[in-house]
Amino acid sequence: MSKHFALRDLVDDRPQDGVFRVNRAMFRDPELFDLEMKHVFEGGWVFVGLATQAENPHDYFTSFIGRVPIIVSRDGEGQLKCFVNSCPHKGVRLVHKVCGNARRHVCPYHGWMFDSSGANRNIKWKKGGCYSEAFDEENHDLAEVARFGEYRGLLFASLNRDVPSLEEHLGEAAKLIDLVADKAPNGLELVPGRVTFTYAANWKMQLENCSDQYHFTSTHPSYIRILEERAKEKSVEVVESSIGSADFWTEGAQGVTGGTMSFDHGHVLNWGIMPVSNAIADFERAEELAEKFGEAKRNWMFNMRNLTIFPNMQIAENASSQLRVIRPIAPNLTEMQTWCLAPRGESDEARRFRIRQYEDFFNPTGMATPDDTVCYEEAQLGMAEQERPWLQGHARGMTATVEGGNEYADLIDIKPARSVLADAQLCDESLFASYYRAWAQRMQEVLA
Amino acid sequence: MTALSQAEAAEFLYREALILDRKDFDAWLDLFTPDCLYWMPAWRDDGTQTENPDRELSLIYYRGRRNLEDRVKRIRSGFSVASEVMPRVSHMVGGVLLDHADERTVKLNSSFVVHVQDVRVNRQHSYFGRYEHELTLVDGQWKISEKIIRLMNDVVPTMLDVYSI
What we know:
The structure holds two protein chains of two kinds.
Chain A: H1 7-10, E1 11-14, E2 19-22, H2 30-41, E3 46-50, E4 59-65, E5 68-74, E6 80-84, E7 99-101, E8 104-106, E9 113-115, E10 120-122, H3 133-137, E11 147-151, E12 154-158, H4 166-170, H5 174-182, E13 188-190, E14 195-199, H6 203-209, H7 216-219, H8 221-233, E15 258-262, E16 268-272, H9 286-293, H10 295-302, E17 304-309, E18 313-317, E19 321-330, E20 333-343, H11 348-362, H12 369-382, E21 402-403, H13 407-410, E22 418-422, H14 432-443
Antiparallel strand pairs in A: 1-2, 3-12, 4-5, 4-7, 5-6, 8-9, 9-10, 11-12, 13-20, 14-20, 15-16, 15-22, 16-17, 17-18, 18-19, 19-20, 21-22
Chain B: H1 6-21, H2 25-29, E1 32-41, E2 58-63, H3 65-76, E3 88-101, E4 105-118, E5 123-138, E6 141-151, E7 155-157
């Protein structure tokens, strides 16, 4: 196979020269996009959902791995399984609902039937079908995905068998998932109500934006002003604010206000110090969490944390707790599936507060996300430039990056590959290198 | 004072639509009571919407006109890139049903389509669904004390603000 793309033309990664640059073609090329779908999304571990989305026997939900439709189903014995959502007979998508409960799934086209463990239970008029022996020797069950695993209630799958174990894939970043899961002693759940939006730009715009502290004050000043006014007003009527109670993003904040961590396999975190206060919905369990996990880990649970598990899952813990799943549709079109994450059994007051924060900040119908998505689209237009193809957006923090962790990472015994400790104006961009190195790793077969 | 007739109720909704099309936000805010409910529930699954806004997510949920004032402030601030080149909108309201009417309160159910021309990128789409209004008589004037927007096409292309629904 001829290789149309050379990695060095797409990602200029020369740490010894202090250079890390990404070519605009990465965001717009249709041929490259097809390769990404096959090798990044269908060629390695991706996030598929939460175990609580299929909690009881025969519960199921549907989703996609890359372009491939899947079903996650809990069988009669309580075992979670993940199949390709396609009838072996004619390829028809078997289950159309987003979620439900069913012991049997019958294909609407020719009536082949499968149970909740994916086993074929009936081929309509099999005996009268004059099938050859060769047909009988074929496996008629739903195709299980090559790899499927769970970590702390988060489900991951890979269509490619030849990948590291899930444990190895998550690596030290698993400890950041622990911070989210440990906050919820009775387990995590998705608050009912899914919010989906699209934007006309490449999926990597969202990938980066979640970890991009630099944009906050320049993209969201209209929202920040409202936070400031609400903080002054403190009336019962207005939606209260978590971010307004912290200063990690403000120009004048002194000393270390947060930083970033980068991990192998493309996972990254950017974080900011937030006080343990009632401006965060989890405050009702602050004491309990300190007793159980120690004060240092509890304080980390209250910090602003934007975590990406490469390539498609992001958990944003800042104004509220958001789970985002990135689904690329085309080089210039991305679908975002988003949910509010919450601990089971939290009080009505905490839940109400969490939801109100969430809607205003995270929803595409709110007061912050539209200013992001419009910027993604404007960036996509600018990606057409070919004369000066190298972006200058991956350079901040280059000289602040150190190998390994720092004293804040040590507090939760986490060992990132690289880290940055930052004041409010540093706004590290060097963490993005982790995304592109993992991207290159998954694409290595097809890049010269 | 008698309750609104069906025709008067429909006219009220048409006027609200006109105000939104013109983006006359002061007039729009003035349509609401100070303690109004403004609520656009999310979809729980393929066929049901969230019902309890305190335990389930909404697309928009505000109790109190003060929060709508914040939305308007943001749109007008000059600091929101999503509000810089304003989409043009055209509301169509129809099928206005009078579900309840007494001297002080009227409940309406109607359907809406809003055509949106996103001028910034020369792209058009629409939002459609149903409105549920509760109007209350305050000092001789009918005001919106509740507005529930049931959005059917809830996969939002890029953004959705209060003038597009």
